[in-house]
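Before we proceed, please read the two lines closing this message. Let me know whether the structure tokens fit the sequence:

…
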Amino acid sequence: MRAREFIINLEEGDVVKFIPRKSSHEKYSDAFSKQHNDEHRYGVGHIPCDYCGEVNCDYDCDGSQADGDLEEGLKQNAAAALVGLGLMSAPNLTTDVVPEIPSHPQVAPPARALTKVETLIKDTAKKAGIKGHELAQLLAHTAHETGDFVAMEERGGNKYLMHKYWNNIPLRTRLGNKNPNDAIKYKGRGYIQLTGRGNYAKMGEILGIDLINHPKLAAEPDIAARIAVQYFKNRVEPSSPDYTNTPAVTKKINPHDKPAATQDRDTKYQQYKNLLGLL
């Protein structure tokens, strides 16, 4: 009921105290008044006027209303208008609590857990003292060399292997192949793709495994993990590269790596950084 519609019957001696009506500016924020006017000006429809309670009131309604009915509704409606205009973030005016903002950015949680193969390599590496960014690089390079741990033996027929590891004399010499069959027998195997008779012999001696007579053992998961870790320690660690620099690490594994391949290695390194919780 509007205040001006009240009829006050006074008896002699009665004392009536009138509370001055507050102006619209005092009762409502500019944002709330704008929302009220826009709702009625543009025909938002059938929304009762928050000032007077009428559905089809004049949009210039002065908002006069009994003071006792106004206070709580004012708080709620003004809050709703301010939220709609992006001036407030909390819909509850009964408290002034502001959500606490973390002072430091938090590290994103790993996208997934390590697979069984990745865990095997990680555990084998940690026993040998490989950790941190070096471990992330080891996982990245083994994943690259095997196509995400799918190819445990080098692909290609005998003709391809002969051309690559026997007909190429400089490479044949570097790999220690002594006869044509060595190109096929000692092809790339395992997580690091151990290749060549000379490398099979050397790694077998270090690990105490007869890889010359049993080269296929190099593709067995547990042995392949040991070979990969030992290869890293023999080939990469002595140069003490910056393990956050993938091209520098790659040069110790494949100095003739193509740019696209090096990029794949680095992409995998970034992924393993996250999986291992490294900054």
Q: What stands out?
A: Residues 67-84 form the longest helix (18 residues). Residues 190 and 221 are 7 Å apart (CA to CA). The chain is about 50% helix and 0% strand. The mean pLDDT is 76.
